[in-house]
Each structure stands twice: as structure tokens, then as C-alpha cells.
Amino acid sequence: MPPKFGTSGLRGLVSDLTASFVTRYVQAFLSSCPVGPDLLIGHDLRPSSAGLADIVMQGACRMGVSVTICGPVPTPALALAAAERGASAIMVTGSHIPADRNGLKFYTPSGEITKAQEALIKDALDTSVAPARVGTVTDDTAVMARYAARYQRAYRDVLRGQHIGLYQHSAVGRDALADLLQTLGAEVTTLGQSDVFIPVDTEALPGVLRQQLRAWAEPGQFDAIVSTDADGDRPLLTDEYGEVVSGDILGQITAEALGAETVVTPLSSNSGVALLDSFAQVIRTAIGSPFVIAEMQQAAGNVVGYEANGGFILGFTAQGATGALTPLMTRDAVLPIIAVLAQSAKAGVAACVATQPRRFTATDRLQEVDLRAVAEFLALIRSDPEQRAAILAPLNSGCVAMDETDGLRMTLLDARIIHLRPSGNAPEMRIYVEAETPQRAQQTCFTMLSLLEAALARCGSCPTL
Predict the structure, then answer these.
(1) Is residue 461 annotated as part of the catalytic site, yes or no?
(2) 463 lies in a domain?
(3) 36, 211, 366, 388: most buried by Cβ count inside 10 Å?
(4) Measuring CA to CA, which residue among 275, 274, 324, 282 is closest to residue 303?
(5) What's the predicted TM-score (pTM) here?
(6) Which residue out of 31, 95, 269, 461 is catalytically annotated?
């Protein structure tokens, strides 16, 4: 499928992200959206990203736009730098998807582009751009340092006495994250740095990685193991036993620690947040940071957002342990990592997680599926009670409620939740499960994955099976 906008920017196969294709989108963005005095460009560490960043730079310069090259930096660090100077930004990253794919994330001076601005970009794709004076090009090598300083002010020395394992893999900013954790007082041991790109999806971690995390933690030497996805906007954090803490739980703990009044989170996050007394309002949205941010912008007061992948969005000036924390209206991985480690300093991460309502999520995905066939399959089980009952029969439960806000979300008789959703920019179907224990959520997710594989194989929509 050709590159297209999904829940988090423009993505597609690297082979389809040609110079002419990328230039059209860059120039459409610059001509249709507010961009400020200049354009900041950053990229992750996948093999194609530096070359694509150069194409972005050339396309912007041909429009007379002044460009600031920021090099390999995390997405939230680039977004923060752009917001601080009232500039726009383009991040070249495919986030957690494999190395044969890549993408672009667009930022106006106000933050991530909205769905309305996506439409403006699409409408401007075929508009010819008149040649202009060539824009200037400068470098900014201090983006990561300013990003780190934000946390050093707000969480000075809060990790003193903690020993943190840092799974670095191929994440951009991996060395800078080690330095930051150390400046906050932690002892840091780096783990698993790779010269080969490794896609880490914090919503669908493979079993082999979960086993590796437990093995690293087994000697009992770490208070936690942390990591991020490729572009640093989705956190990964384990407890002292190497058990992964789901992103929505990280979001709940962080929101409480920051004194949030309103929480905005997608349907894929667990429903336990609504059981907490800490928040005056909980707003649920369709999946994707643009939907979360749109609702945050409509809310008043101390509002935050987070997704099931753990990416945290701060919408007000909050108070950290030692200083103020400025807003950042894009997903961030570092804030939930530091906030949860700070909250768990005395009793440990596992005990901190145990204070949250007993609702847990598990996620997985079917890859290389025919999305049209998936849509037909979902329409069938949505409209036909017998087909729906047949799919759910191996789970020994039936459906009592359905929500079609984003895909198909089914609440079962025993209060488990199963949410099926086609990807917006990859040939994948996501499976989200919620249950009363982590083990039951994982087992239900595994069972549902097998059931869907079989069902889609029968209708010929899953060619790899």
C-alpha cells in the first residue's frame, strides 16, 4: 500500500518514499500550515532516515525556508525545540515499525499537526510551488541537551540510590538517556545496544524480548529496566523482576504524580483510570495522538493525555519533584519513565503498580493482512450475532456491549474487553484485550490472536499463514 497518513504521521515502505514523493509532502506542509520562522529537521537511527532527512532539507530550501538540522534526536526533543522557538519541525521516523518502512511526523509551532491540517496537506499536494530563493541551512547540536535540562530542573537527584538497566537497542538518543538518568542520581547499566535497527513496539513486545528482560533482571541487581521505541516517544519500563508495566498504567501513575485534573486517553487504554478518585474527568477518544491532543485542547485546567503505548502528553505547567515542568504537546517517553521511577523509589515499581485498579491490558497484532478483507470480517461479526458468538465461543463468554468509535470494541459477560482495529498506515490488525489480571489479559490476547489468524486464513485475507 502507498505511504499514507495514519494515527502518527505519514508512513510507508522506504521504496515508496522517493525524493519526489517526500518533497511533495514537505512542500505541501510548508505551503498549507503555519510554520514559523524556520523548519527544524531530525531523524531516528534506521538506515534510510538520514537520507530522507536530506531530501526534506532540500525540498524546504527550494521554497526559501530557513532550515535547522538537528540530526539524530528523539521526536519529543525535536518537538520541544521547535515549540521553544515558535518554529515548525519534521521528524523522519517510522517509530516502532520495521526498517523497510519509514515516515514523517509534522509539527507546526503549536505542536503535532491536527487531522484538519492533515487534510490541508493532502489538498495542497498537487499545488505547484513557485521557485524561491534558496533557504539557509544551519545546525543545532544542543537539542538533546535542552530536552534533558527540562527534566534535570524538575527531577534533580530523585533517582539517587536506584540501579537502572537501560535497554538501548537502536533507539535514537540512547546514550543521552543514559547520561540523563545518571545526572538524576541513578546508577545505569546499558544493555543490548545494537548496530542493526531493531523495531520495538511497546504495545506488542515479542515473547523473546520479555524473556530477555526477565533474564536481565533475574539476579536482582536492577530496580527497573527502561527503554524507548526507536524515536523516543513511547516508554518501556519493567519492575524489579523484569515484568513489563503496560503503558496505560505508566500513564495513570504519571498523571496522578503530576496532579492532573483531566485525563484524556484512547479506548485502547485500560478502563481502570476511571476508577481512580484522583481525576475530576476522564475523556476517552479514538486511537491516535491527534485525537488525544484535540480533546486536550478543548479541556480546561490541568490536563494530560496518554496512550496505551505509554506516550505521555503534558498540557499544563506541572510541578516535578524539584521544579516546574513545562507543557509538551506531543508523546514523550522520558517523563513517564522518570515520574514512575520517582514514585516507586521507596517501595519499588511492583508495589507502585499494585496500588492501581486491577485492570490490565495486553496487545498484539496480525501483520501482512489484507485490510479490505479485515474490514469485511469486522463488519460481519459486528452485524451478525451468530458469527460474533462463534468467534467468542472459545473464550467461554459472550458479548454484552459494542463500541464502534475506532474499530470494534466488545465488552464480554465476564467484563473482559476485546478491541479489534485495522491499522491506519500498515497492513496490520491490532488486538487489544483488557482483563482483571495481567495473566488473563495475555492469555485472552494469545487465544484471540489464534482465532483471528484461523478466521482470516479461511477467508484468504492473511497470505502469510
Answers:
(1) no
(2) no
(3) 366
(4) 282
(5) 0.89
(6) 95
